[in-house]
Amino acid sequence: MSDTIIEVSGLHKAFGKLQVLKGIDMSVRRGEVVCIIGPSGSGKSTLLRCVNLLEEPNSGTVLVNGFEMTDPDVDIDKARRMIGMVFQGFNLFGHLSVLDNLTIAQRKVLKRDAAEATAIARENLRKVGLEEKASSMPSQLSGGQQQRAAIARALSMQPAVMLFDEPTSALDPELVGDVLGVMRQLADEGMTMLVVTHEMQFAREVADKVLFMDGGVVVEEGPPAQVIGDPRHERTQTFLHRVL
Ligand code: ADP
Ligand code: MG
Fold first, then answer.
1. Taking every annotated instance into account, which residue ranges of this chain make up the domain ABC transporter (predicted)?
2. Whose C-alpha lies nearest to ligand 1, atom 6?
3. Residue from 17, 18, 48 whose mutation best tests the ligand 1 pocket (most atoms within 8 A of CB)
4. Could you write out the DSSP letters of every residue in 149-211?
5. Residue-wise DSSP of 105-133
């Protein structure tokens, strides 16, 4: 099996006349944590959304775990099942308990029976430190707990890769650490992760590779010690001066 789990080649995406992605080449290897940093509007979310085809690229290819997402004949629902995604906002279903949030897609999409789905859900709630919250409603949880539940829900589908789009940006500062802690633990367990983040400390400590994006291109990529610690490009330096 290939060591490369995500491979993006020559990816272009425009919204009307606005060119947002201008030829992105990037790859993620199995078990790797890749962080994407860069200013607002540089195309980070659009890139992530093209990886699971929430946005359709204008040209270029996206391969995930051997599936060509951009092939018109691909079974996109099947392909998307390999990909877990966690967004900035908390996307739990408000009318369902935490446990039901974690079991519904397992049952409807993966056709697991209730006992198996519940066992997998409870195991993932334990992993994110929320086993006591199984019967709570999302509104009874803090933002950080909701985000950890959203991570547990994605994990319950047993994806091959997890995508995170600024998962801590909407959280009160004191709740950020718990969510980053869960992500760090996932990384330690060998989960393949592609993470858009402004948390430079997290990127420095956890990422195997950092990509700096600006204006729809990858300006610079490499190990965090280089891209964050000793950036070569002026645009990367300017960005880091502003955020660090
Ligand atoms: P980032 O995540 O780096 O902040 P985005 O990928 O969200 O950047 O956005 C890049 C650019 O694309 C921005 O100018 C944004 O306004 C534009 N954009 C994103 N999504 C859409 C959309 N659905 N329709 C039109 N423009 C969009
Ligand atoms: Mg974004």
1. 6-240
2. 43
3. 18
4. HHHHHHHHT--SEEEEESTTTTS-HHHHHHHHHHHHHHHHTT--EEEE-S-HHHHHHH-SEEE
5. HHHHTS---HHHHHHHHHHHHHHTT-GGG
**pTM for this predicted structure:** 0.96
What are residue 161's DSSP bridge partners? 83
- Conformation bin of residue 38: beta by default, left when phi > 0, alpha when psi is -120 to 50: left
The bound ligand whose nearest atom lies closest to the alpha carbon of 38 is 1
Give tens-digit pLDDT for 44-103.
999 999 999 999 999 999 999 999 999 999 999 999 999 999 999 878 999 999 999 999
For residue 10, the model assigns a pLDDT of 98
Backbone angles phi, psi at 143, to 5 degrees: -55, -40
- Closest-CA residue to 84 (of 220, 195, 185, 228): 195
For 159-174, letters b (16+ CB in 10 Å) and e give: bbbbbbbbbbeebeee
Beta strands 209-214; 33-37: pairing state: parallel
Closest of 87, 77, 80, 122 to residue 101, by C-alpha: 122
Residue 68 CB neighbour total at 10 angstroms:
14
Ligand closest to 19 (CA) is: 1
